[in-house]
Amino acid sequence: MHMMVIARVLGMLLMIFSMTMLSPIIVSWLYEEDTAPMFVSAFAITLLVGLLFWLPSRHKTGELRTRDGFFVTVFFWLVLSVFGTLPLMFSQATNMIFIDALFESVSGLTTTGATVLSGLDELPKSILYYRQQLQWLGGIGIVVIAVAILPMLGIGGMQIYRAETPGPMKDAKLTPRIAETANVLFKIYLTLTLVCALAYWLSGMSGFDAISHSFSTVAIGGFSTHDASMGFFDNDLIMVVCAFFMIVSGLNFGLHFHVWHNRKLSSYWADPEARMYIYLLIFGILVTCLYLYFSGTYDWEDSISLGVFQLVSMMTTTGFTTTGFHSWPTFLPFFLIFLSFFGACAGSTGGGIKIGRMLIMAQQGMREVYRLIHPNALLPLKIRNQRIPDRVTDAIWAFFGVYLGVFYLMVLLLLASGLDYVTAWSATAAALNNLGPGLGAVATNYADLNTFSKGVLCWGMLLGRLEIFTLLVLFTPTFWKN
Questions:
Q1: Residue 26 belongs to a domain
Q2: What's the rounded Cα separation, in Å, for the pair 302 and 289?
């Protein structure tokens, strides 16, 4: 590997990330808070370390190879998570030890939304904004944002982009050059954020809450500025706006680009993955609302409003709540978390296994059933009349197998740490699917977990955000051979 070039890239990316710690200073000034010094300190430390990486290697040039891209991606997310803890640890309002600050930082950057904090309504606005900003940066992927800048500095970004971006986007560019592709994705993401913030504000949120929640909505993150999450606002119009943007953000951003470029809304329905995504949302909404009503949990109006919102939030892996869904009849909380395994579409900001993979696995399952009747039939898998290569289907099944293996290894580790099964299972699902809310001891937050459990869940969140293989490949002997 080109270690000096990697050091240069990491240093540059870390310096870019340090700049994001300046915006909470503006918030602290606007609200006359005394938090500016801690953000200045965090900025200075992050910038200095970035310079220490960059200065010795600033004259090194060269294109990153695929292995270098994996290394940079994983270590940048690790380093980013560590330095993201600084404002949280420096703050007297949060008074966090390192593992709690790391958990909050990883949860934010991976858009998981699990939190160890309580009393959010009393925290300084600058701290709340910083948490929301972490999710916004993690949503688009700080690495993908950076590759729009790095080519101007003589650093190729395609290998980083391929390693970080989830789903089919790994193998296809929306525009001929990687910098243009990253710019297109960023513009779509920024536009959705601005429109979402405006819609929240017009629906009754304050300006601060509208901006903050637009960050975590479009990022499919789930952090809120209030302990009651979206339930704090008690506003049906806000719930409708939130549900709409969660659904939109769960679609493939490449599909958004093609719809915008071709000016054809029908492209959404023409996409098989988007159709399956909508069908699953409708199915989940019907099951949830009907079960809430016929079980006597709510009247018909509340069953619809609360059921629709919570189903959309959980299946898209956002994690916003309007009520304590963990206290619903036992079937529903597990049903909602089960749907989070499907997650959002590939190429979105959502988590989970992804609808695209589920679609291909479902088709292959049906093909194997058909082969029992017609063993000699040639039955190629197709999406939109394009044959899916065997390598793709093999990779998807390998991902699914490794995903299950990692999932139950995490469950066993959490059980060994003393957690009960419901807590261990739901916390693992919430971490690996980048979901956030859990059941049992983590129904409200994760503060009461022991240090070992929080460490396991941090790794789970990173594995989920990097789609497992990107991180696990670093632990294979082949990766380190020349």
A1: yes
A2: 9
Place of tokens 């293996």: 405
Residues whose CB is less than 8 angstroms from the CB of residue 116 and which lie 6 or more positions away in sequence, other chains included:
96, 100, 103, 104, 445, 446, 447, 449, 454
Any bridge partners for residue 255, and if so which? none
Flag whether 191 is in a domain. Answer: no
CB count, 10 Å around CB of 185?
26
pLDDT tens-digit map of 151-181: 443 444 444 545 555 444 444 555 556 667 7
- Nearest alpha-carbon partner for 141 in 112, 113, 161, 156: 161
Task: List pLDDT tens digits, range 380-399.
Answer: 777 777 788 777 788 888 88
Task: State which residues form the domain around 15.
Answer: 3-179
The distance between the two most distant Cα atoms of the chain, rounded to a whole number of Å, is 74
Instruction: Report whether 83 contacts 17 (CB < 8 A).
Output: yes
DSSP letter at 389 equals P
Structural domain contains residue 17: yes
The residue type of 172 is: A
Burial of 198 (C-beta count, 10 Å sphere; 0-12/13-18/19+): middle
Q: From residue 444, how far is each of 54, 227, 312, 435, 449 by CA, in Å?
A: 42, 9, 19, 13, 12
Q: Is the pTM of this model over 0.70?
A: yes
Q: CA-to-CA distance for 52 and 57, rounded, in angstroms?
A: 9
Instruction: Name the domain count of the chain.
Output: 1
Q: For residue 392, which amino acid is it?
A: V
The counts of H helices and E strands in the chain are 22, 2
Continuous segment of H or E residues that includes residue 382? strand 382-383
In a domain, 425, yes or no: no
Asked if 82 and 10 touch (Cβ cutoff 8 Å), the reply is no
Task: Identify the three-state secondary structure at position 189.
Answer: helix
CB 193, CB 215: distance < 8 Å: yes
